[in-house]
Write a structure and sequence with these properties.
Number of helices: 5
CATH class: Alpha Beta
Number of strands: 8
Strand order of the largest sheet: 4-5-6-7-8
């Protein structure tokens, strides 16, 4: 049986059972979002979704660049710069993963390879001015769901720029498991 994803409700199901997503589990721990105007937060989230979709379509060679707004195109330029300067080769884009043992699922942004180091990496793409503290536990959860321990990075995109930040806190997966336990306790799952 395969992992199902219902995009309208952002819901994962496996063998008929609803599973929490990695991002849902970590949502209570996002930095400072509780103080932000909900309308502005929704607008920023939608923009980030558009940037992710654009990068994904670029990664799989299906992007119609003429359809982009200048704002989205400038973030894509940051992603292209990251690929060019780091040498990162995208192996997979928007890959769904499942951890049957712990009962969670998610969609990781990029599985790639740095050819010079000959090592696989997981990259999470973010937009904004800083790397959220949740991205380390998020990428560690993706690694665990894949059953692989590979290097993890956050690619923080900004207009025509990027910052590639290594995520190497050894506590990251323990933090995710603690958040998952609290999620299950608070939701009664």
């Amino acid at each position: 049986m395969t992992l199902e994803f219902l995009s309208a409700s952002h819901e994962y199901r496996f063998q008929g059972r609803k599973l929490p997503s990695v991002t849902t589990v970590l949502r209570p721990y996002y930095d400072g979002l509780e103080h932000m105007d909900p309308d502005k937060l929704a607008m920023l989230a939608l923009f980030g979704t558009h940037v992710h979709q654009t990068c994904h379509l670029f990664n799989i060679g299906m992007l119609d660049r003429d359809s982009l707004t200048p704002a989205i195109d400038s973030y894509l330029a940051g992603w292209e710069k990251c690929l060019d300067e780091s040498g990162l080769v995208v192996l997979e884009s928007e890959t769904r993963v499942l951890n049957e043992e712990l009962g969670y699922a998610g969609t990781l942004d990029v599985i790639g390879m740095f050819p010079k180091q000959k090592r696989e990496v997981v990259i999470d793409i973010k937009t904004g001015t800083y790397v959220p503290r949740t991205v380390g536990p998020q990428t560690a959860a993706y690694n665990a769901a894949r059953g692989k321990r590979v290097a993890r990075y956050c690619c923080l995109l900004q207009p025509n720029a990027y910052k590639l930040v290594p995520l190497d806190d050894p506590r990251d997966f323990d933090i995710f498991k603690a958040a998952l336990t609290l999620h299950r306790w608070s939701t009664g799952e």
